[in-house]
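Data availability (excerpt). All sequences and predicted token strings are deposited with the supplementary files. A representative entry, Deoxyguanosinetriphosphate triphosphohydrolase-like protein, is shown inline so that the format can be inspected without opening the archive.
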Amino acid sequence: MTLDRHALGFGAGQRAIYAADPWSSRGRLFEESQSPTRSDFQRDRDRIVHTTAFRRLKHKTQVFIAADGDHYRTRLTHTIEVAQIARALARALKLDEDLAEGVALVHDFGHTPFGHTGEDALHEVLAPYGGFDHNAQSLRIVTKLERRYAEFDGLNLTWESLEGLVKHNGPLLTPQGEGTRGPVPQPILDYCALHDLELASYASLEAQVAAIADDIAYNTHDIDDGLRAGYLTLEMLEEVPFLVGLMAEVRRLYPGLEPSRFTHEIMRRQITAMVEDVIGYAQAALREVRPESVDDVRQAGRVLATFSDSFAATDKAIKKMLFSRIYRHPEVMRVRADAAAIVTDLFHAFMNDPQQMRGHYWVDHIREMPEAAKARHVGDYLAGMTDNYAIDTHRRLFDRTPELR
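Structure token line:
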């Protein structure tokens, strides 16, 4: 994909006509006066960073649990890497960097302890009550569960930030009103009844670059962490022709380089190549579509910031390798089974005796709640737990807790 370097927006005041305008936001559910020193999107980003949900990400699993070592990515370090890539893409494409960064920073708020394992386990026990979806849970956190402000629950983020959170992976509804990936989670429908996020349209380019930044980040850092853990070897990377080329280049330029530096040189080239591919694809797409506003981007009928066809194939090959070599590694699967058991045990324990929940999650009227409302309340409590807190709580309530190491 050809990249037009002369069109890159690296200077101040370079926001494009198709970018989201921070001074013309569609507003917040609860009206607030504007700040004289910060745009609405800056305020959103700042509110996101100061949440308890953001701080909890430091003790939530990405792939390898905390007990595996201090140098593996957590949800927090993953999120920071996604935000850095999203901001770089936004700057190059002359978008609003604060909105792109904010969407990247909030995109994993709803993840449970123990990564996707915890999400799968919580979805299973909540299936009779509507199931669990981490994206919908992120929305619940920023619109309801964070309790920081006197005048409203949640963070009262702008429409654009919430749209990006909910739709960064594409529309949730077809133009005919059917779910694009199955039924739309009820928490999203409930919020849209109050503040319509237009689920049948695409999101802004700022949200689109946050979404592809997520792929770039974990495709790269899961390889790095896999090599550190010993689940991957450099020979295994040869399953992906793109990585073969990167390794050959590093060996040619730096023969005999020590392993840790060799890995880093591969990873930095991988990120650069993927970022430049997305920029090149987006530039070409923008020339085709010629959007004159952010709403034109939403109505374009396609994603405008993503991989080219060739890099989409590379992305697929990397994910296939990571799935077979890491995500389904026998040791990872053992830990996943034990982690799922912890989440399942805790759900049933809290449903049987809600008083075991601590802090503001214990409410006097919980016993009188309808079963579905009580289950959702328990699900909120569990989803907010860090890995460490879930393990410690299980040890408090049960005679035996699996060792996740």
